[in-house]
Specification:
With 293 residues, the protein is mainly beta. It contains 4 helices and 18 strands. Strand 10 and strand 11 form a beta hairpin. It is globular, with a radius of gyration of 23 Å.
Length: 293
């Protein structure tokens, strides 16, 4: 290993482990996600039935007490008690709790393991204050700078009819539609191609810091605009405009694990042989998460 004398020390991410030692989490700050791993053969008291574990279900509970399944772990594989997951949808700047439960070959469930972590939100004063995350291709996710955040507009759902013999109308109503907002973000030149691909990447998740009082929103970009912020060819950035029209969270059930910038295609392009892969990673968990677990 070659060490550069002037290189700053590498900060190893904090690894949080459940009291029983079976569930672990590492906050992946560069991507605003959480690497999750289960190992029922670990801890001071390994699970006696670990060899019979086939899958694991991991759920996330937010500050509001609402529990949702983690995409890629609903359920995820954990053959013989070892498995991994990645949560790219955790709310930012608030504590959340993860709970994992093993599922055996016969369909029965084992004990629950839990831990709590917090994914940092963009700091107050940070220039890039909006995360645009792709659900299908998390490696496309980008953190950009909000320049315009329009008024929230929530359409009414009402049917109004005149009422015979009464000055008052009859109104049939339902809950208001999810609030939409027009957004313009500043994108530096080196991010332009990435954001262009994001606009065609299907379902996105928009997240800001909690202080903005804007809920996390899943949406599919419709019409979008792009304009230079300076003379073409010498610009300091591009202005990209789009509408966030929230949709329900896509069903996480049965979805595979997706990790930013890591896939079997990446492995195939990075290594000449399986022997090289095996010699580079100490376990399946390390390979599945590119050494982050």
């Amino acid at each position: 290993m070659i060490v550069l004398p002037g290189a700053p020390p590498v900060t190893v991410p904090d690894r949080v482990t459940s009291p029983d030692g079976w569930l672990a989490a590492i906050v992946d700050e560069p991507w605003a996600g959480v690497v999750l791993s289960v190992d029922y053969t670990a801890g001071s008291s390994p699970l006696s039935t670990a060899a019979s574990v086939r899958r694991v279900r991991i759920v996330r509970t937010g500050p509001d007490g609402v529990q949702v399944a983690v995409r890629g772990a609903a359920p995820g594989w954990a053959v013989e008690g070892v498995g991994t997951a990645y949560d790219h949808e955790a709310p930012l700047g608030v504590p959340v709790m993860y709970s994992a439960q093993p599922e055996y070959a016969d369909g029965t469930l084992g004990p629950v393991s839990s831990l709590a972590v917090e994914v940092p939100a963009p700091a107050v004063g940070a220039v890039r204050d909006l995360w645009l995350k792709s659900l299908d291709e998390p490696g496309l996710s980008a953190r950009v700078h909000i320049t315009t955040w329009g008024a929230r507009e929530s359409a009414a759902r009402q049917d109004v009819a005149a009422r015979a013999g009464s000055p008052f109308a009859m109104v049939g109503y339902d809950a208001h539609a999810a609030a939409t907002v027009q957004v313009v973000v500043d994108v530096p030149p080196e991010q332009v191609e990435q954001v262009r691909r994001l606009m065609d990447a299907g379902v996105l998740l928009a997240q800001t810091r909690p202080g903005y009082q804007q809920p996390d929103s899943f949406f599919v970009p419709g019409d979008w605009t792009e304009d230079t912020t300076g003379k073409l060819g010498s610009t300091g950035g591009y202005a990209v405009g789009f509408t966030i029209a929230p949709i329900e969270r896509p069903d996480p059930e049965g979805q595979p694990m997706r990790l930013p910038g890591w896939s079997w295609d990446t492995v195939a392009a990075s290594f000449e042989s399986w022997t090289a892969v095996a010699s580079s990673y100490s376990s399946w968990a390390a390979l599945a998460t590119n050494g982050r677990a």
